[in-house]
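Subject: design request, 332 residues
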């Protein structure tokens, strides 16, 4: 990792912003992707303890999402060390990343900055079985269940209590009632989390504005992969978005490019490359995410073995991959 290249960029952002910067990257490299999860809280605590209380902390964020409860815990931890929290978004901050941004005093988005809907899918033991993988369950989208019921009422024209009851009974025959109960719990949870986080972002906003933002981010974008630009986030959704000046914009993007290069995010992880011509077994160690500040850097590291299994019918070398461990470790 080229930390010596990143540190001057981190220092430049801190100088321009008058802040202390912590960078949080959950990589989306094929086969070694990472996600926002509770294990990150301890890592952030170590960074924050070494940095100490600060007048202003900036969180530089790139993520495709993850556990929806982690943003609330992380925001509250960060606010133990500062009264002024900003989230800097050079590129993607989807799903749980968007939730995290809602808890900041300021959201700074570059030209390529993107937020996403906060409509989670849920999975538990009662979800439908995946017909293509007997050991897996099919995630159920919270908003898909809600949309199914709206479809029956608004487009099919079902209005009587008996008709709606029949529609719901049909759904409960396809999806276990306890899975549907879990969907409803998450429907309430995501709105409750969004409201509490938005109260930190827009502490004096009227309730009507808060409700409009929640509705937009949960049910009015209609696609979970909708990419919300900074213009849409500010003008259409109603968030307080800061547009960086050209110098800050340039540094934010340059720092992102170093992370993309160092984590090889544009290249799928190919374990066969660890094997030489006369080698059938090799050990690998790959970083899939980073938390970095001026005081330390921690990597989410995958370690394991790759074994050659000959040549497959297409002529490509076959491999068997065994991941032994995946965890956050302090890097040099």
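Subject: RE: design request

Done. Sequence follows.
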């Amino acid at each position: 990792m080229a930390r010596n290249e990143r540190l001057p960029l981190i220092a430049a952002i801190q100088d321009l912003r008058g802040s202390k910067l912590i960078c949080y990257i959950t990589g989306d490299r094929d086969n070694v992707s990472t996600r926002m999860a509770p294990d990150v809280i301890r890592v952030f605590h170590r960074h924050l303890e070494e940095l100490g209380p600060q007048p202003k902390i900036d969180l530089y964020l790139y993520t495709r999402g993850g556990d929806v409860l982690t943003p609330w815990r992380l925001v509250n931890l960060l606010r133990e060390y500062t009264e002024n929290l900003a989230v800097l978004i050079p590129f993607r901050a989807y799903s749980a990343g968007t939730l995290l941004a809602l808890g900041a005093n300021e959201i700074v988005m570059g030209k390529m900055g993107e937020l996403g809907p906060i409509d989670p899918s849920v999975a538990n033991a009662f979800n439908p079985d995946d017909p293509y993988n007997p050991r897996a369950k099919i995630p159920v989208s919270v908003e898909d269940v809600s949309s199914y019921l709206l479809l029956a009422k608004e487009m099919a024209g079902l209005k009587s209590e008996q008709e709606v009851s029949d529609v719901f009974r049909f759904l409960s025959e396809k999806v276990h009632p306890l899975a549907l109960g879990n969907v409803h719990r998450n429907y309430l949870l995501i709105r409750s989390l969004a409201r509490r986080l938005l109260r930190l972002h827009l502490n004096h906003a009227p309730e009507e504005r808060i409700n409009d933002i929640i509705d937009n981010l949960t049910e009015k974008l209609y696609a979970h992969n909708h990419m919300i630009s900074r213009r849409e986030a500010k003008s259409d959704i109603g968030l307080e978005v800061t547009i960086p000046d050209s110098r800050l914009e340039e540094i934010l993007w340059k720092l992102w490019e170093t992370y993309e290069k160092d984590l090889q995010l544009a290249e799928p992880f190919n374990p066969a490359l660890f094997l030489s011509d006369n080698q059938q077994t090799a050990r690998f160690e790959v970083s899939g995410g980073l938390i970095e500040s001026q005081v330390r850097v921690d990597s989410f590291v995958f370690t394991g073995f790759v074994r050659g299994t000959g040549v497959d019918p297409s002529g490509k070398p076959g491999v068997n991959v065994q991941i032994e461990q995946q965890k956050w470790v302090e890097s040099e």
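The mean pLDDT is 87.
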